[in-house]
Write a structure and sequence with these properties.
The chain has a domain of 145 residues: 3-Layer(aba) Sandwich (Rossmann fold), CATH 3.40.50. It contains 16 helices and 11 strands. It is globular and about 55 Å long. The chain binds nicotinamide-adenine-dinucleotide and magnesium ion. Nicotinamide-adenine-dinucleotide (NAD) binds next to helix 1 and helix 10.
Length: 384
């Protein structure tokens, strides 16, 4: 029996790579649900190729076009944001690949967990916003949350077979992004297109900017806290520009396990879809003779202040990471539209963090309210 996969965010970088994995393994996986925000042409092409049970186009203006294009198929077409939740609550799939970007991924993922469906989690913002509630629900429902983020997949793989052995710390590797070694006098003039060019990974626009500001690594520290039930002091970051070691776990005896490979998201995606099995593939292999040097250095948190803001939020907890995430989404969106400069991203986040009221143990509703308030405030700063 093949595993029926619901790909939330099928038109994105993660979603399209997941479909490549499914296409290469038709006996093991089928695409049961595909969802897209606005890219109806790609969604239609994917539906014609993969013949899913259901597609969702969030942008309701595109509904009729998708419906007409799939009129001669059995694909059911839904539209609108609430359809994402509705479809996540259905029984027709076995595993959700959470590949939506940003806060928009939170509600459908919670709904899938409520529905008892395992999650392959790419959408790190879900855990940054409400990691305590999300992981508690997974525990209650006894469903696994399998990381897709390469660093977390690495840690997950290093922990296999370790049972109750205690983790001393985890070491998240960071490539350093396109501006590694640069200083504020350079960053102040950075433009959108330059910031979008990542040296090792090809990704969606938002995570590419987060990688350039190092916010991505801060979000990943918070993601790791919840995925692996760690204290903030147990989470470290080291810059490793070659992106061959994807992350490491140091145990109580000082022994360190690392997971390695070429930087290719298809590997952690395939691992999460096939878990607990490993399945063969034709991806290029890492050759130690070709890359003979792996290097490591401290992250420059003085220059890349988004990372220090995220570390503060990790330690402060409560609704602070939710504020950080919301302000970052607004600021990155504005930067991508050339409305603010690269260093202004940090400014917007910092001012929003100082503005929104702290809540130590937020309910889900309070997280939603915090997100809305932080977004509105951050947006008001940009309009000035
Ligand atoms: P992307 O921008 O390429 O794709 C995002 C997908 O989400 C698209 O299918 C889009 O239609 C959908 N989407 C966007 N806004 C939406 C909304 N408001 N409502 C519903 N759907 C919406 O992003 P990506 O690079 O594929 O990243 C997806 C997630 O995976 C992010 O959380 C990112 O941090 C994480 N991630 C990505 C990579 C990578 O290599 N791309 C690596 C690790 C983690
Ligand atoms: Mg990552």
């Amino acid at each position: 029996m093949s595993k029926r996969i619901a790909i939330f965010g099928s038109t994105g970088s993660i979603g399209t790579q997941a479909l490549e994995v499914i296409a290469a393994n038709p006996d093991k996986f089928s695409a049961e649900i595909l969802t897209a925000h606005t890219n109806e042409d790609l969604l239609i092409a994917q539906a014609l190729k993969f013949n899913p049970n259901i597609v969702v186009i969030v942008d309701e203006k595109k509904y009729q076009k998708v419906k007409d294009a799939l009129a001669n198929t059995h694909v059911k077409v839904f539209a609108g944001e609430t359809s994402l939740d509705e479809v996540a609550g259905m029984d027709c799939y076995d595993l959700m690949l959470a590949g939506i970007v940003g806060y928009a991924g939170l509600k459908p993922t919670l709904r899938a967990l409520d529905n008892g469906k395992p999650i392959a989690l790419a959408n790190k913002e879900t855990l940054v916003v409400a990691g305590d509630i999300v992981m508690q629900k997974a525990l209650e429902k006894k469903v696994p949350v399998i990381p897709v983020d390469s660093e977390h997949s690495a840690i997950f793989q290093c922990l296999i077979g370790e049972g109750r052995n205690k983790i001393e710390k985890i070491i998240l590797t960071a490539s350093g992004g396109p501006f590694l070694g640069k200083k504020p006098n350079f960053l102040v003039n950075v433009k959108r297109d330059h910031a979008l060019q990542h040296p090792n990974w090809s990704m969606g626009a938002k995570i590419s900017i987060d990688s350039a500001t190092l916010m991505n690594k801060g979000l990943e520290m918070i993601e790791a806290r919840w995925l692996f039930n760690l204290q903030p002091e147990q989470i470290q970051v080291v810059v490793h520009p070659q992106s061959i070691i994807h992350s490491m776990v140091q145990f109580e005896d000082g022994s360190i396990k690392a997971q390695m490979g070429l930087p290719d998201m298809k590997l952690p995606i395939q691992y999460a879809l096939a878990f607990p099995q490993r399945i063969p593939n034709q991806f290029p292999r890492f050759d130690f003779k070709k890359i003979s040097t792996l290097t490591f250095e401290e992250p420059d948190t003085k220059t890349f202040r988004n990372l220090s803001l995220a570390i503060d939020a990790l330690y402060k907890g409560g609704n602070t990471p939710c504020v950080l995430n919301a302000a970052n989404e607004i600021a990155v969106f504005a930067f991508l539209r050339n409305r603010i400069g690269f260093l202004d991203i940090t400014e917007v986040i910092e001012r929003t963090l100082n503005k929104v009221q702290y809540i130590a143990n937020p309910t889900l509703e309070e997280y939603f309210d915090t997100d809305g308030e932080a977004r509105n405030y951050a947006a008001s700063l940009i309009q000035m």
